[in-house]
Design brief:
This protein is α/β, with parallel strands linked by helices. The chain has ten helices and eight strands. The structure holds phosphoenolpyruvate (PEP). The site of phosphoenolpyruvate (PEP) has 13 residues, from strand 8.
Length: about 250
């Protein structure tokens, strides 16, 4: 891993927990990160939208960032139930996940929509965590790398930089299933992503590439040691402070 890419361990809490649960979880992660005193890695938690303000407030001034799980492409307007990137930024978010496979599947988000959301994140001063990844059918058909190329071309805006974007490779079949690709498969996918990014942006070498899909404390060291893996996007295991901190501890810096 290039020393310029500081590992990022990001938690996606999805639609889980009460407000009190979220604030308590954030406080526990903040306390653990302060005790560890890490300066060589970054931590991020992405609570449900209703919890972002309180979680960001609980994390204020500390080592852990708060982020959103999604945003609308527009800054305001008649979009019932949606949230603008500017609204997330105003309550203390620093990042926002866009294009998670659950959004692509449950809400029919296309690559073009994801791309517009990434641009919206930048407009609001947020860092976009852009998710890509193949389905099981695509994997079984031997189309993983082709799908990743298509999603990168479609979802990653040409103006992406190492400062405004992070990519997360999340094989859809590995999310929440306890299954993970082999280390060799993760290495091949990440090398491919880096190469595909280089074809469309100048700063590809500096962009952090996260792996996501059933990361837990017991497999984190192995996955985070893979070349071109610059951190993890963690779902289920991010709901437990000790587990999430153990994953962060496993991150390789420099
Ligand atoms: C995710 O949803 O981004 C994810 C990686 O989930 P899990 O870690 O639970 O597989």
């Amino acid at each position: 891993m290039a020393s310029t890419r500081r590992p990022l361990i990001a938690g996606n809490w999805k639609m889980n927990g009460t407000l009190a649960d979220g604030v308590a979880l954030a406080r526990a992660i903040d306390a653990g990160a302060r005790t560890a005193g890490w300066t060589d890695r970054e931590l991020l938690v992405c609570p449900p939208a209703t919890h972002v303000a309180a979680v960001a407030e609980a994390l204020k001034g500390g080592p852990v960032h708060a982020g959103g799980q999604d945003c609308h492409a527009k800054a305001s307007g008649a979009h019932t139930g949606d949230i603008a990137a500017e609204m997330l930024a105003a309550v203390g978010a620093r990042f926002v996940i866009v294009g998670h496979s659950e959004r692509r599947t449950d809400h029919g988000e296309t690559d073009a929509v994801v791309r517009a959301k990434a641009e919206a994140a930048w407009r609001a001063g947020l860092i976009a965590v852009i998710c890509i990844g193949e389905t099981l059918a695509e994997r079984d058909a031997g189309r993983t790398l082709e799908v990743l190329s298509r999603q990168i071309t479609g979802s990653v805006p040409g103006a992406a930089t190492a400062a405004n974007s992070v990519l997360a490779y999340e094989p859809v079949w590995a999310i929440g299933t306890g299954k993970t690709p082999t280390v060799a498969e993760v290495a091949a996918a990440h090398a491919h992503i880096r190469k595909a990014l280089a074809a469309q942006m100048a700063e590809a070498a500096g962009v952090r590439l996260l792996y996501g899909g059933s990361v837990k404390a017991s497999n984190a060291a192995e996955l985070l040691a893979v070349a071109d893996v610059d951190g993890a996007l963690v779902g289920g295991a991010s709901l437990n402070a000790a587990e999430f901190l153990a994953i962060a501890k496993a991150a390789q810096s420099g």
